[in-house]
Automatic annotation (TrEMBL):
Keywords: Oxidoreductase. InterPro entries: Gfo/Idh/MocA-like_OxRdtase_N, Gfo/Idh/MocA_oxidrdct_glycsds, GFO_IDH_MocA-like_dom, NAD(P)-bd_dom_sf. This is Oxidoreductase domain protein. GO terms for molecular function: nucleotide binding; oxidoreductase activity. It comes from Paracoccus denitrificans (strain Pd 1222). Residues 9-132 form the Gfo/Idh/MocA-like oxidoreductase N-terminal domain. Residues 141-275 form the GFO/IDH/MocA-like oxidoreductase domain.
Amino acid sequence: MTATEKSLGVALIGTGFMGKCHAMAWRNLATAFGGLPPRLEVLADTPARKAAEHAAAFGFARATDDWRTAVGDPAVDVVSIATPNGMHREMAEAALAAGKHVWLEKPMALTVADAEAMEAAARASGRVTILGYNYARSPAFRAAAEMVAAGAIGRPIHFRGIYDEDYMADPQLPWSWRLTRAEGGLGALGDLGCHLVSVMLALMGPVARVQAQMDTVIARRPHQDGTAPVENEDQAQALIRFASGASGEFSCSRVARGYRCRLAWEVQGTEGTLRFDQERMNELWLYRPGPPEADGFRRILTGPAQPGFAAFCPAAGHNFGFNEQKVVEAEMLRQAIAGTARAWPDFTDGLVIERIIHGMARSAETGQPVTF
């Protein structure tokens, strides 16, 4: 049975920013890619009234305030997990043990040890897993990865990547669980840096060594008891050596004033350069040497010739969006469940990402490079 011949039963845990993105992705999957629509079986959140309200709004048949009930529901084939980071391991392992496929938002886990346990559980279960690295789903990025692999810019020799946002730049923003190691894990590295690592690996291949530094710029934040300490990093930078021998520069910040979603990267090759900025996600820039009168970067607008775009729009230049990336991710999961494609990144790939960002943190803490 192909991916489009089976209607998947879905449970959603969490109704915040990414929970809503998952719900919209499931509801638009068949519209964009065809086949039978998923069955939106059960939504879990607390309190019960909130779960019921969101189930009605998102189109789920049932609501519960007990996520274990959702995971164990026999009508459910796949569980979408969009909850705070500290809940990821328990929920993912329970879903896998119940025989469900898992779509889990990043970061995969609070610690490398948790990620290792989750990866082992996924392998033992035989179920499909995929992580919510939606920026790797855009048509421009997927086209860029294909171009690099095909040698369009020659041999990649250097990567430069930045992921800056300013959602924590205001020192008056209150303290929250995200700022603790116990519930939030890493800071900018865990929230933003892991996205940058995902695209970096897809473009450049395995990482051999990192040398990093990181800072907590705003050490304390307003709290009901006065102020409370910020336990994780606001920004981090690293120098990278790839297994191929290529070099790299890496930077992420949650306190970079003026930036909303600056996931920007470039790959320099022996015969050209590719560059991209998520804040202008429908533009990919390519440089290959040309005659002096026309030598320079060329803008490539997103369009149906790039992977995934035509499922939403037949006309180039009509712009792809953030939520469309999640629909593409849902389709990748559906194809993997049907056995017609491999889900990337799954928990095995996600463990590699976790080892890199935690390796950067360890390098910053010790002042020494970390090898992989």
